[in-house]
């Protein structure tokens, strides 16, 4: 009995057994790696989203500036002319890239498209009348947009 | 049947424990350094995204107001409540939320107006730089414009 | 000095030390996991809040740019007229809603499709432009956008 007791005393586990620390470290490292990967993925998505939005803003205003440049060019051609059927003025308008005109009974309508990117354009339409111009439309449209765009119009409950 | 570990004398097992501890700490230290870097990168990316988002909204607002008014001083007053004399360039110190903050300039927004070769057309160049970076690296920029017909005032030119 | 008593004492001290080290290590691990989880929560929450409020402002300004006529009805209601249809964008129950009506019907700011969650939406006219502010989870974004204001 005594000898047995002595033997147990000598081999009594002292402190923590081998392997527990390694197991714990593996668990903690896996947890941290998973959290870091999730954080990085969320941050990268956020960055991608904001970069795309910021790029679109820059593209839109660059296109807007270009559209205004075309407007200024058209205005400088048409404003110096009192007759909207003037052949020379219309010939000059033809040279403005992308501009299309339509002679109306009370003036002249000019429209043009300025690309924002490969999916969208700014569609501009102005009307000259009595020496002044009025902007009829200055809006973004999709590159493939038709006049009758099908939309999910609400038709009641 | 005794396990090999249990047959090791108490002192030996302690040595084994300390050896394991050292190896674990070493490995854990290396893993932590890598993971900490990933967290820091995520945090930096997240902060940069927030900045970029705010910068683009700020630039959009400046471009829209300038387009409607054609005046740099009016743009600065409408957006930041700043009174500036007629000049071609305005530098606005902003905090991280893109709010006017002369005390702590985390960002610098520079709005420069130049006349285009086409009469009546003015171009505005909006540039954001890091307020704490001496090199003045551009973080975000937008070019916009305003057309004010030289001969007549036209309604709705803001569109 | 080197008797069995002092040996046992040394063993006890050693095992207590190893136990203490193990406990310290466990505590550190727990703290590290908590800190990492809170960092992840912050980054992820920031993404959600930024996405909601920024996307709401972007969506509304893009709709204004693409519409024919813009009318600010109230601080949280916007009417966009286009060829053949009318869009009502409004704020209700902590979200931005959108409803489309065929032209000719009188639009009402109720029902429709829930677009983004936002605690606050403020739409006002300023300097011939529409000023849109959306707030969600403490993150607020404001942008101006020109529209054919009626």
Summarize the topology.
The complex is a heterotrimer of chains A (157), B (159) and C (150).
Chain A: H1 2-10, H2 20-78, H3 87-95, E1 100-104, E2 107-115, E3 120-129, E4 132-142
Antiparallel strand pairs in A: 1-2, 2-3, 3-4
Chain B: H1 4-7, H2 10-69, H3 72-80, E1 89-94, E2 107-115, E3 121-130, E4 138-147
Antiparallel strand pairs in B: 1-2, 2-3, 3-4
Helix pairs in contact in B: 2-3
Chain C: H1 4-66, E1 69-74, E2 77-82, E3 85-92, E4 95-102, E5 113-117, E6 120-126, E7 129-136, E8 139-146
Antiparallel strand pairs in C: 1-2, 2-3, 3-4, 4-5, 6-7, 7-8
Task: Give a structural overview.
The complex is a heterotrimer of chains A (157), B (159) and C (150). Chain A has one domain (31-142). Helices cover 49% and strands 22% of the residues of chain A. Chain A has helices at 2-10, 20-78, 87-95, and strands at residues 100-104, 107-115, 120-129, 132-142. Chain A has a four-stranded antiparallel sheet with strand order 1-2-3-4. Residues 1-11 and 146-151 of chain A have low confidence and may be disordered. With 159 residues, chain B is α+β, with helices and mostly antiparallel strands. Chain B is rod-shaped and about 95 Å long. Chain C has a domain at 53-146. Chain C is rod-shaped. In chain C, the strands form two sheets. Chain C has a five-stranded antiparallel sheet, with helices on one face. A three-stranded antiparallel sheet of chain C has the order 6-7-8. Chain C has one helix at 4-66; strands at residues 69-74, 77-82, 85-92, 95-102, 113-117, 120-126, 129-136, 139-146. Chains in contact: A-B, A-C, B-C. The A-C interface holds A 14-16, 20-21, 24-25, 28, 31-32, 35-36, 38-39, 42-43, 45-46, 49-50, 53, 60, 137-141, 147-148, 151-155, 157 and C 11, 14-19, 22, 25-26, 29, 32-33, 36-37, 39-40, 43-44, 46-47, 50-51, 54, 58, 62, 65-68, 83-85, 99-102, 111-112, 148.
Radius of gyration of chain C: 30 Å
Assembly type of the chains comes to heterotrimer
Shape of chain C: rod-shaped
Main beta sheet of chain C: strand number and arrangement?
A: 5 strands, antiparallel
Q: What is the share of helical residues of chain C?
A: 40-55%
Distance, first to last CA of chain B: 90 Å
Give the total of beta strands of chain C.
Answer: 8
Please give the count of helices of chain C.
1
Could you tell me which chain pair has the largest interface and how many residues each side has?
Answer: A-B, 52 and 59 residues
Q: Which spans of chain B of ≥5 residues are poorly predicted at pLDDT below 50? A: 1-8, 152-159
Averaged pLDDT of chain C: 87
